[in-house]
Amino acid sequence: xxxxxxxxxxxxxxxxxxxxxxxxxxNVPETDLDKLYVVxxxxxxxxxxxxxxxxxxxxxx
Amino acid sequence: MTGKVSxxxxxxxxxxxxxxxxxxxLAMVFETDAPSALANDxxxxxxxxxxxxxxxxxxxxxxxxxxxxxxxxxxxxxxxTQGASSYSKDSPAVAEKKYNEQSAxxxxxxxxxxxxxxxxxxxxxxxxxLDKVNNKLAPCYAVLDMxxxx
Lengths: 61, 150
Hints:
The structure holds 2 protein chains of 2 kinds.
Chain A (H helix, E strand, L loop, with lengths): L1 E5 L7 E6 L13 H4 L21 E2 L2
Antiparallel strand pairs in A: 1-2
Chain B lengths: L5 E10 L9 E11 L8 E8 L10 E8 L2 E11 L43 E2 L7 E11 L5
Antiparallel strand pairs in B: 1-2, 2-7, 3-4, 4-5, 6-7
């Protein structure tokens, strides 16, 4: 990972302002709604399950 | 010249479990915090990361390079390469090359390439977190449409 500065688009000379290596753990988030939300419904309504009453988003950036 | 410099990379998934027809995305936000005397308006800032899954030696490393122009939030590019060439400052693939010529023969296919955002605010110079008086923070956003739900 690093960063460089060039004075313009035609320049092949640069200033390196960072240059480093490291190791990270990167995990895929859980997106299975059955695991994310617990729904308690009477047995007679079990065929219609509303997971979300309000829109929820994950913006991870 | 003296001053403080920091670089940060945030990586995450953008996912919407409700909209089943909307594919998920992998996004990267680069942030370089550097002295204004070093990063002048008009300078090109090229931020990059090279990654490879641990122990997966049969897959070539991927590099995502995010280019911005200091002070111009509308002038951005994102490059994706897949190859063995190093992006370190002394690498033959980098030394004596323009920012857009680095590892030019290792460009990834379009569907595997990160793209820029149409939201120019993702590239706008922001207030420094290190030194509000003497530094500026230059962000760059790159996003990959995964073409599927994760």
